[in-house]
What does this fold into?
Amino acid sequence: MLFVPGNNPGMIRDAHIYGSDSIMFDLEDSVAITEKDAARFLVYKALTKLHYGSKELVVRINDLSSGLGVADLEAIVRARPDVIRLPKTDSAKDVVECEREIERIEREAGIPVGSTGMMAAIESANGVLNAREIAFASKRLIGIALGAEDYVTDLKTTRSPEGIELMFARGMIVNAAKAAGIMALDTVYSDVNNEEGFIAEATMIRKMGFDGKSVINPRQIAPLHAVFTPSEKDLAKAHAIMDAIAEANARGSGVASLKGKMIDKPVVARAQYLLEMAERAKTMTVEDI
Amino acid sequence: MEIKRPGVAGTMESSDIIVRIEPKETEGIELTLESAVMQQYGKQIEKVIRETLEELGVTKAYVNAVDKGALDCTVAARTLAAAYRSAESTEYVWSEVKVK
It folds into this structure.
């Protein structure tokens, strides 16, 4: 997910050319308080007039307590992005209140109710502790995300290259998301010149179970995709597992094995997920060409 | 919409446009435009500015625009922002709903 400042016409115009899976137009922290109205007009017009192909389009609004969030929703819901990202989500109540406003605007604008997806960014100690109730707060939620900069400020610490200060938050968020059957999305890696550090972090969060990561620079997209795209070796193993299952089924046997190891249900589920990931990665690559 | 005070929106960055709108006593939109791509797109930029103001019901204003290669949607967005600021209004009307 590529972050794009909402008041930058050049970046908004070019956002789809870099090969990210989704684009997040930001009306929040990257926009000066005096330019909130201008950014809102710009993102609204871009979404209603420009074509971004099959990219998933996300808009980060200002939080509702800022007094700007509802005004953002009035414009953005009508511009029909796939997902609205709610920042600074501290509780399920924040999600429910945002959903109520989205639903009202959908009705007023004649948009099918429920067609606007939501994503909640968790950016405080309180939010992390409430991750589970946040993840279950709305059927519109496609995922929950960690916003690390505000979170570490709340913890009165700073970010380190190893990310030790984020271990608890990441663990909570990935578990809450998976329990709710939605995606877990990791925070940005701010040091764009440290590709090695970025890859190490991306590898770690993939291993933890995260489904994706936000990026602030197009240079981070290719290395991130490389981390998330299944390797040839893993794919060959997944195919072998699926073949063994198919063969067992054909024999009428409920038990399959591969190289002497029993293949049970979780092994099959992981192989299926891996093949799905590979298929999605292939689709993205073709579209980017 | 009544233009009450000078209002400006946009930047001098590439792909952007600065639109400045000021009050005018008499009817009509008096527009001056500078653009690096005046020959190719000058008329189109002017058309988008005039249509956007017409949709807002602005009939009296001086408009000065400095274009840096903005797309039509950027021209419209900056005109809207400048007009609402000039009218000291936050009663935004989002008339367009994208058809999916």
Summary: The first helix of chain B runs from residue 38 to 56. The first strand of chain B starts at residue 7 and ends at 9. The CA atoms of residues 23 and 51 of chain B lie 18 Å apart.
